[in-house]
């Protein structure tokens, strides 16, 4: 179908309900990171990790972009 899609920083920030500004931290431990709760609240609307099928369409697309 060749539908052109444009995804900007504004789109990602609005969908993830976060500010456009930010920083990148590497070598963080995935099990003790303070961001785990923030990510789970954003992606699954819960403090616990959910499943891919529990995500909204917008969050599924963000997850694919991040991967």
Supply database-style keywords.
about 70 residues, mainly alpha, about 0% strand, globular
Quick gist of this model?
The chain is mostly helical and 67 residues long. 42% of the residues lie in helices and 0% in strands. The protein has one domain.
Can you describe what's shown?
It is a single chain. The protein has 67 residues and is an all-alpha fold. It has one domain (9-18, 30-66). Helices cover 42% and strands 0% of the residues. It has helices at residues 9-16, 35-44, 57-66. The longest helix has 10 residues, at 35-44. The protein is globular, with a radius of gyration of 13 Å. 1% of the residues are buried. The mean pLDDT is 77.
Q: Beta fraction of the residues?
A: under 5%
Uncertain parts = none
Report the biggest beta sheet as strand number plus sense, adding barrel if it closes: none
Rg calc: 13 Å
Mean pLDDT: 77
Class from secondary-structure proportions: mainly alpha
Q: What shape does the CA trace take? A: globular
Task: Write down the secondary-structure element order.
Answer: HHH
Got a strand count?
A: 0
Quote the distance from N terminus to C terminus.
24 Å
Task: Lay out the secondary structure.
Elements: H1 9-16, H2 35-44, H3 57-66
